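Weekly structure sync - notes
Attendees: PM, LS, DV (DV joined late)
Agenda: review two folding runs queued last week.

Item 1: First target. Sequence and structure tokens pasted below for the record.
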Amino acid sequence: MEIKTVFLIFGISLACFAVIITFIGLRSKNFPSKGALIGLLLLAAFLVGGTTTFAVKLSIEEQHEREEGQKGIGEETTDAAAINIIRQDQA
């Protein structure tokens, strides 16, 4: 599985976890119990740790791709740059 896919899975899971816990916490007076608190904290730490780990790995991978000269997101290809130069010379 690609790093970007794993990062997205962790990130989306963390966002959903936060929304669900907030919803449950607002609806229940006695939430969370002592056991649930420990479990939820461990799950939150796992999701945050996974998200940050794969965010760093993804940024390092993208940096290596840019350094190797591969086309990155939002970068102009050399063909497109050459066409722009030719058009400017003709004008």
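Item 2: Second target, run right after the first with the same settings.
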Amino acid sequence: MQATNMHDAKTHFSKLIKRVRNGEEILISKAGKPVAKIIPYEQGIKPRRPGYWRGKVEIAEDFDELPNEIMVAFLGENE
């Protein structure tokens, strides 16, 4: 991650944006302390499509059953 101070960020803002568009992250600091980060914008997640995984995933019949040795390990008990 590249760091720059506030003055340089204001002076070279368009150059910083060009670098961010190429995937860089820029940390902006004031008086030596980080105050902001410029990161590439990512498009939001596409809306869910119900049923997309239908037929692609199989859930085992014993899915909801937890073996005793695993339950004991979670609870920290000795058998």
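Discussion on item 2: The domain at 2-38 is CATH 3.40.1620.10 (YefM-like fold).
Action: LS to circulate a short write-up before next sync.
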